[in-house]
Amino acid sequence: QVQLVESGGGLVQAGGSLRLSCSASGVTFSNYNMGWFRQAPGKEREFVAAINWNGGTIDYEDSVNGRFTISRDNAKNTVYLQMVSLKPEDTAVYYCVAQWTTGLIMNWRSTRGYKYWGQGTAVTVPS
Hints:
The chain is mainly β and about 130 residues long. It is about 0% helix and about 45% strand.
């Protein structure tokens, strides 16, 4: 059974930093592309970042590019999202996602591209 558990969310002032972690269990982690989505209050869930199985391909949503960094440690079955220069508009629940792969990247900017989701961790950046 695949389980994704996020941690690291919290309240941070504008301009501050947070690092989110997502620990995966029940999977051969290196067989999965990993990503992060977020959902702000009253808005649809949106793509934030994704990383392929070996870390060789990375993608970011435009508004976070240059401020957020996704990385993974296959030995620890963990994917990270380092967030700096946080803004009030980054306030959301952040979800870790996993996409089984044979090496390809499939529709990874869409929620439909992922079968496995974590429970989410909240990030709040007051205005």
